[in-house]
Structure formats: structure tokens, C-alpha cells
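Still learning. Show one?

>
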Amino acid sequence: MKNSRVFLIWFMVLFMGVMGWAQDQQAKSSLSLRLGYGLPSSSTFNKEYRTAVNAQVKDTAEYLQGLGLSSSYLPMHKLSGLILMGAELEIKATQQFWLVLGSEFWTRRLNTALDVAGKINEVSYTIQEEGKINFYVIPILATVRINLPFEIARIYLGGGLGYYLSYLTIKQQWNWLENSETVDTGLRDLRASGQALLPHANLGGEIKLSEQISASVDLRYPFGSIKSFKVKKDTLDSQNVGQKLIFTDPDGHEQQFKWELSGPVIGAQLKFKF
């Protein structure tokens, strides 16, 4: 939390400084609305966390099938991408150099489920389990862009830093009925957050549509990961609050949850110049 305040203060100081300097230079500015798709590598989630969750659901389904019940389950898919939206302020410093401040919102949900039904010794069973994990990321970005010498369209290279605020919500819900009577039911709501300051590279192209409006395609590539998440809420075990988020991997070992964010972030932007 302390690091978040320090970065936000730094961001505001930089923002005010750039705005004042740009006005002195009579620099042109643009405000962009951005829609895109992020492709983080997500190695820990895809190879360890997701694999362990799917193995547990599959083993439960097979065990209940062995008792004579019919079952079906939905495996959790890989985290292959996140939808994002955001905005950025781009300020012209010189003919070739531009300063950019922006922020985005990334989101993605993944599900898993288990459904079981049948009879054993005249007892009718209905078992339902459902799991959901939601990812949310708010990167705050500062970038320097350099225009390349092309005349038909504006092409630029750049780089900068992003402060990534990430949130996870993990929900597990279950309901066990015997002869239509509830034997066990419950809901676990676990929430955790993590932060990281990551460098990024930037490449893009822009085409002028009018004097005040242009369109662009932008590619940003962050490098690094959020190495730990702290539990903010756990309705099943309140002692977890304040602790690092831990999970059991496919080999039965406890691992610290982390999220690798390295990967392309592709966006389409509509720019309004003023």
C-alpha cells in the first residue's frame, strides 16, 4: 500500500510537470480512447494452479462415478488473454519526441464446474460444485515515444514504466442433496491483490482522419511479473487475511501465487487532438 501511494504521488508530480512544460512549449496534445487485448504469459496459473484445480475436479468426478453416480465436469480453461479498455494523454515535446501518460482496465473470468446425480441404495444424490476466478488489472503507464522518419503515416517506437495494480476474486460454491434434502452447502469468497512496477517497450502507427481526429494501432510489451498476492478477504478462513496467497500445485507442494505479465498488449485507439 505504501508503494502504491509513492507511485501515485510520483505520477501526479510527473503529470503536472509535463503539462506545465508542454504549455510553455506550446506543444500539441491528444487524448486517446483505447480498446484492446492483452496476452500475458501467465505460466504459474496455466501450468500449476489451473492444472491442480482441474485434477482435483476430475478426481472427484471419477471417484463418484466409481460409486455408481453419473457425473460431468467443466475444466478451467487457460488464461490466454484479457479484454482491456483505457485512455491516454499524449503530449508533443519536440518534432520527434512525445510524452504519454495513461491508464487501462483489464478483466477476464474463468470457470469450472462439477455436476453429479444418481442413486445408491435407494438414496438419490444431487451434487453441484462451481468455481470462478476473476482477474482485474489497472496499469498506470508513463511512456516516451520517438517518431520514425515516415511520411505516409506516423510510426513510433518507445518505452517506459507501468505500475500494475492487480486483483483476484476466487469463489467456490457447493450444494450436496440427498433425497432432495440439503446435506452440505457453502460459499467461499477469497480476494487478493498484488502490485508491481514493470518496464515496457512500445511500437505503433497512426493515421490522420481529420485535423482533430486520428486512429492508431498500438503494441506494448511489458516485462516481468507480480510476484506475490496478499489475501484481503477469505470467508472460509479469516486467518488467511493479510497472508500471501498460497495454493497446492499438482505435485502436492504449497506454492506462492504469482502472475507473469510479460506478453503483447495490442490496442486500437481513437485520438482527439487539442
Notes: Helices lie at 2-24, 43-66. The two ends are 36 Å apart (CA to CA). The first strand starts at residue 29 and ends at 38.
